[in-house]
Task: inverse folding
């Protein structure tokens, strides 16, 4: 009788890094399906390229740079990064640019910092921001959704809802062809929830993102705190702005939540384990910070969108937030 | 992965919950480990070759915190080492002073000192696992005002059903035991904490407590580690008692139900603590059962008794999946503190330690609110000053952190190492 020896506890939960990443991938599928329906082959190409190159770069890094014994692509975190990167790109982006974004995300933002769990900035958002600054034109031309023609890659481009409301006032919209035409291209709420509007691949459908969120909550991969506090902070701040400025159209709170990358960022990027605070208290500070920064950038910068910059900025504060939000040890301060 | 704050739901696997306690019978030999209590081990008073009966004192409590040890069998002492007395079993003869009947005695002696001396004499220790001598624990200094006695029937370790069976089968005795301890504490109140899923135990105990004013049953959420002393007090009273203070400072005394039953037997039946209920379960056991086991019984005897296939047997755990220890030597004896013996066909999977992904599962589910990931990281770096701030000494070794970690980092091992370094 040869008996085994182990240290307590003698059982381990079934959860693994891989199972968690797989859950995130499953949660992203509804958004992926909507984007393929709306943008056709373009979305498929960008997503496939982004995922494939993220996995390839991760593999090359782990094998030739880190010389790790283990192939780190097996934990599927590179697939998640690839999906998330593609989700914040337009579907008509030249695919080689997606490769550049994947390189920046994996090699620069992730592995350089020590790989999974050590990176300070969300790799997908870092890659997206690098592309945004390098290729501003291609990164801001958004194809119009076209359900009927899967293979039509020369889709017309259109403005996103955020662009439309940002330039809705007369002075700036004069540069556009026709103000009323421009405004009429604004999607209605149903379109925004279902995903029939221009935008990045994964951000268009609020419903699809929320289905993913519910799945993540059900599987206990994330807590509700970050997404809810993030979106609530944006809503309240935007509402206050619209109330005091009187510009209810431009600063419509619902519009700001449903369009742009807010929901995608709040559910899938601000909740990234590596780059968000660990304690609940820290998570709430982080989420509110993200929300306020998003509103600030959307109000004052030349950009329509503020989510990526807001989350990346707050990423930098995570070590500090972690430091001030250490949980109180049981019984501490009770004699 | 995140879990409910301060504790988790484990797969309970209470397979033997409805199995009546059966006598495990007599092994050929018992090994009485000397140190079965917190504090100092008792000193042997028998010699090699001495004849003993069931209940004969074989090792006497040392000075300070210590506990008497009695023979659990009748026979001849064959070996005495620094840690163990082995007795060859030859008969089944009781020490004459023991009342070995099943009748329930209710006349509690009205003498605090007599009760305490009986508990000390009979070698009663905390049977939930801590092994703290019961007489020391309930002899609370006069200046401390005790408000409530808590009987711990939570039994939050998976598979374990020994305490559950005891509550179902010996409810009245347990309540009388509580009354005895109440007498020492000078109070009337007692709360019996039972897992809300143990419906039978709750019903039986509630029926009995109706006849005893001040004794109540409280059903608590069946999470792990609800049975840890300070966590139990928190669940019942919301009081948080830090590591550096005692439950009695806040007005509580916590006793495991098996200990309380042993107190009853010691005081009312003059019976030393020489046997206990042990759950023998696990997937290598065909019929998981609750055995009444003589202390010192080798696990090999129970393995055989439970009908486990020894050829397939891979893992033997004495004392629970979460906090117990694996046993390699089949001669290892059962002690006063072991509520269960678990037998498995498989070993704990050897998982490679991966990088921490900062999921916060360990910190969020830690019943003491520690940050296990931070302790492990700090230990690996060797940043000793910082380790002090993270207070690994507050860890109650419940094992949740290692259990939940998706990166399979043995966090509890790191915490223990960090503690040793301090």
Result:
């Amino acid at each position: 009788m040869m008996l085994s020896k182990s240290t307590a506890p003698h059982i381990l939960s079934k959860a693994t890094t891989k199972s968690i990443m797989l859950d995130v991938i499953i949660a992203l599928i509804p958004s992926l399906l909507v984007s393929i329906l709306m943008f056709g082959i373009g979305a498929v190409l960008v997503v496939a390229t982004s995922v494939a190159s993220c996995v390839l770069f991760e593999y090359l890094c782990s094998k030739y740079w880190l010389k790790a014994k283990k192939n780190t692509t097996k934990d599927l975190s590179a697939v998640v990064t690839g999906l998330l990167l593609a989700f914040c790109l337009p579907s008509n982006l030249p695919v080689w640019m997606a490769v550049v974004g994947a390189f920046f995300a994996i090699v620069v933002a992730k592995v350089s910092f020590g790989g999974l769990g050590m990176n300070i900035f969300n790799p997908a958002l870092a890659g997206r921001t690098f592309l945004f600054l390098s290729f501003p034109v291609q990164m801001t031309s958004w194809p119009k959704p076209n359900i009927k023609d899967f293979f039509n890659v020369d889709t017309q481009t259109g403005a996103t809802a955020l662009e439309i409301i940002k330039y809705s006032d007369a002075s700036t919209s004069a540069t556009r062809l026709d103000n009323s035409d421009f405004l009429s291209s604004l999607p209605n709420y149903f379109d925004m929830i279902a995903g029939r509007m221009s935008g990045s691949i994964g951000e268009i459908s609020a419903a699809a993102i929320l289905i993913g969120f519910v799945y993540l909550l059900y599987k206990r991969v994330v807590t509700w705190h970050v997404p809810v506090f993030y979106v609530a902070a944006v809503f309240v701040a935007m509402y206050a702005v619209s109330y005091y400025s009187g510009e209810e159209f431009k600063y419509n709170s619902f519009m700001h939540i449903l369009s742009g990358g807010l929901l995608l960022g709040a559910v899938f990027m601000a909740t990234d384990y590596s780059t968000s605070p660990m304690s609940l208290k820290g998570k709430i500070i982080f989420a509110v910070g993200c929300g306020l920064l998003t509103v600030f950038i959307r109000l004052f910068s030349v950009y329509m969108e503020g989510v990526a910059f807001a989350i990346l900025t707050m990423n930098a504060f995570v070590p500090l937030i972690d430091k001030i939000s250490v949980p109180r040890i049981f019984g501490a301060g009770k004699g | 992965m995140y879990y409910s704050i301060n504790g988790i739901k484990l797969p309970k696997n209470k397979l033997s919950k409805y199995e009546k306690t059966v006598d495990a019978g007599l092994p050929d030999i018992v090994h009485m480990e000397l140190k079965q209590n917190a504090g100092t081990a008792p000193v042997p008073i028998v010699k090699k070759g001495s004849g003993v009966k069931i209940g004969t004192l074989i090792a006497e409590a040392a000075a300070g915190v210590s506990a008497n040890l009695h023979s659990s069998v009748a026979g001849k002492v064959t070996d005495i080492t620094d840690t163990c007395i082995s007795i060859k079993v030859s008969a089944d003869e009781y020490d004459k002073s023991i009342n070995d009947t099943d009748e329930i005695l209710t006349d509690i002696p009205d003498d605090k000192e007599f009760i305490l001396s009986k508990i000390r004499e009979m070698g009663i220790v905390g049977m939930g696992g801590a092994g703290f001598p019961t007489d020391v624990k309930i002899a609370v200094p006069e200046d401390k005002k005790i408000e409530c006695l808590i009987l711990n029937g939570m039994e939050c370790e998976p598979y374990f059903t020994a305490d559950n069976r005891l509550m179902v089968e010996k409810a009245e005795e347990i309540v009388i035991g509580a009354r005895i301890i109440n007498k020492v504490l000078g109070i009337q109140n007692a709360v019996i904490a039972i897992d809300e899923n143990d419906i039978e135990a709750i019903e039986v105990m509630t029926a009995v407590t109706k006849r005893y004013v001040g004794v109540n049953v409280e059903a608590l959420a069946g999470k792990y580690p609800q049975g840890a002393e300070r966590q139990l007090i928190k669940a019942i009273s919301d009081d948080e008692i830090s590591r550096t203070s005692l439950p009695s400072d806040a007005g509580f005394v916590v006793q495991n139900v098996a200990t309380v039953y042993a107190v009853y037997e010691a005081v009312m039946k003059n019976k030393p603590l020489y046997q206990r209920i042990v759950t023998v379960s696990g997937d290598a056991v065909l019929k998981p059962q609750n055995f009444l086991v003589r202390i010192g019984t080798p696990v090999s005897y129970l393995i055989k008794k439970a009908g486990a296939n020894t050829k397939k047997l891979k893992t033997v755990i004495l004392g629970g999946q979460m906090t117990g220890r694996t046993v390699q030597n089949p001669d290892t004896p059962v002690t006063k503190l072991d509520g269960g013996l678990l037998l498995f066909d498989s070993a704990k999977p050897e998982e490679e330690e991966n990088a921490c992904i900062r999921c916060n599962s360990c910190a969020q589910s830690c019943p003491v609110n520690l940050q296990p990931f931070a302790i492990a990281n700090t230990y690996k770096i060797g940043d000793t000053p910082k380790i002090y701030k993270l207070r690994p000494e507050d860890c109650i070794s419940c094992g949740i952190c290692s259990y939940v970690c998706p990166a399979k980092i043995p966090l509890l091992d790191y915490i223990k190492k960090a503690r040793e370094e301090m």
Summary: The radius of gyration of chain A is 21 Å. The beta strands of chain A are 142-143, 157-158.
